[in-house]
Amino acid sequence: MTPQHPGFDSLTGETPRLHALLTELRNGCTAGDLGRVRATLHPEVSVTIDDGGTANTLPASVRGVERAARLLLQVIPGAAGAVTEQSVNGQAGLVFHRDARVVGVLSASVRSGALNEIWIVLNPEKLRHWNEG
Amino acid sequence: MSDDLDDAVAVFSAVRRRLFGIAYRMLGTVSEAEDIVQDVWLRWQTYDRSTVRDPAAFLATATTRLSINVLQSAHNRRETYIGPWLPEPVNTSDDPALGAERGEALGFAMLLLLEKLSPTERAAYVLREAFDYPYEQIALIVQLKEPATRQLVSRARKKLATEHRVPVVATEQRRLLAAFLQAAQSGDVTALEELFALDVVSYSDGNGAKLAARIPVNGRSRVAKFIAAFASHFWVGKTIDWVELNGQHAVTLTENGTVTTALSMTVGDDGIQQVLWMMNPAKLSRVTSEVA
Is the Cβ–Cβ distance between B89 and A89 less than 8 Å? Predict the structure, then answer.
């Protein structure tokens, strides 16, 4: 970011920490290990899901480690190889795959060395171009 | 003619990624950004290109102005969107640059913050921060004078910095409000000071009602003394009920069956930042019906 607002750095900057946290989050989900997922999260973590109304069994957004960890374990595929680490909007992110299609994209911000805001797009309309070409 | 069209294609292709980059940062959606780029291309094909001195600037201007138009109507669409609206993610493994000089204003956090800006503010900010356009050129694009354009960018930066203040979780807000009630009722100046941010402000909307301060009270020590000063009589005979106002924890004070005050606050990492006393009977009637 530009020097005018250094405060944004932790929010939007590509950090090695983000990368490491996402790897751990993914591995925690693959192992089905709630404790490992929890350990990646900031005490004030929020998870926001945009499914465009297509998966209405999920809560749209939750706050707090406990509820966030449970929701993440529910939403992030646990099957081996179902989640890849990719650059999403210029930063480290996670991409969910099913039957050779992209079915979800996760982006996150880091605060005090933990995942703070987690955004998950499940709306197929918004993933269309991930499945083209 | 066909040479001319080849030329038009070449000029457009050279800036296509940048145009997409502008439109995407303006709208946060790939599909709408692609539509805009396509629209600009159609206009460019049929335009009298011999009159255009700087094609890149011309195309960026068209893209930005179309994006502003779409954004104005997009706000309505997003209000009817089911569930939370997030930007359409872009795969930057495939396309690291996404048409920007810097990877600016591309992350989810920033795109969501940009939603808080007016379309023109957003355009000026994006062109300046992500694409390094000179103010002179941004001014032409957003159709303002250069000083006004500088102000627009500066105002956008300020808004974004304010929005970035990390919101405190609701439980912390409730804890501070509860602690505040206790300290306020016992008139404990020290306890109140400990709860307040240094620049805390107490606002009263009383519309002339009894006991309401007519002007805001500023500063940790002054607000603490102000509130402690009326501890002995203000709370007497009033019952306190927890309510939710505008999605925030708040309390109402009821006297003889009538809500006379609604008390809410804004809190930050540094404690209570604003204490808001709503004592205006006209506005309280709404609060009363929400409580009931």
Answer: yes
Domain with A79, as residue range(s), is 9-131
Name B249's bridge partners. B244
Maximum Cα–Cα distance across chain A: 45
CA of B91 vs chain A CAs: smallest distance (Å): 5
pLDDT in tens, B262-285: 888 888 777 888 888 888 776 776
- Please name the residues in contact with A96: beta carbons below 8 A apart, sequence gap of 6 or more: A76, A77, A82, A83, A102, A103, A104, A105, A106
- Residue A36 belongs to a domain: yes
In a domain? residue A2:
no
Q: CB of B123 within 8 A of CB of B67?
A: yes
With contact defined as beta carbons under 8 Å apart, do B182 and B192 qualify?
no
**CATH code at A47?**
3.10.450.50
pLDDT score at B93: 77
B24, B34 Cβ separation under 8 angstroms: no
Q: Smallest Cβ distance to B109: which of A12, A61, A86? A: A12
Q: What angle do CA B116, B121, B125 make, to 5 degrees?
A: 100
**Domains defined along chain B, listed by start:** 2-164 (no CATH), 170-291 (3.10.450.50)
What's the pTM value of the predicted model, to 2 decimals? 0.67
pLDDT of residue B56: 94
Picking from A63-67, B131-135, B222-226, B282-286, which range would have the lowest pLDDT averaged per residue? B282-286
Burial of A43 (0-12, 13-18, 19+ CB in 10 A): exposed
Name the percent of chain B lying above pLDDT 70: 85
Contact A8 B164 (CB under 8 A): yes
What is the reported pLDDT for A13?
41
Say if residue A1's pLDDT is above 50.
Answer: no
Contact A111, B167 (CB under 8 A): no
Chain-chain contact of A48 with B129 (C-beta, under 8 angstroms): no
Check whether B36 has a pLDDT greater than 90: yes
Whether residue A61 is contained in a domain is answered as yes
Task: Give the minimum alpha-carbon distance from B187 to chain A in angstroms, rounded to a whole number.
Answer: 32
A1 touches chain B (CB under 8 A): yes
Task: Evaluate whether B264 touches B278 at the Cβ level (below 8 Å).
Answer: yes
Q: What residues in B contact A44, CB-CB < 8 Å?
A: 166, 168-169
CB B15 within 8 A of CB B8: no
What confidence category does residue B169 fall into, taking pLDDT thresholds of 50, 70 and 90?
low
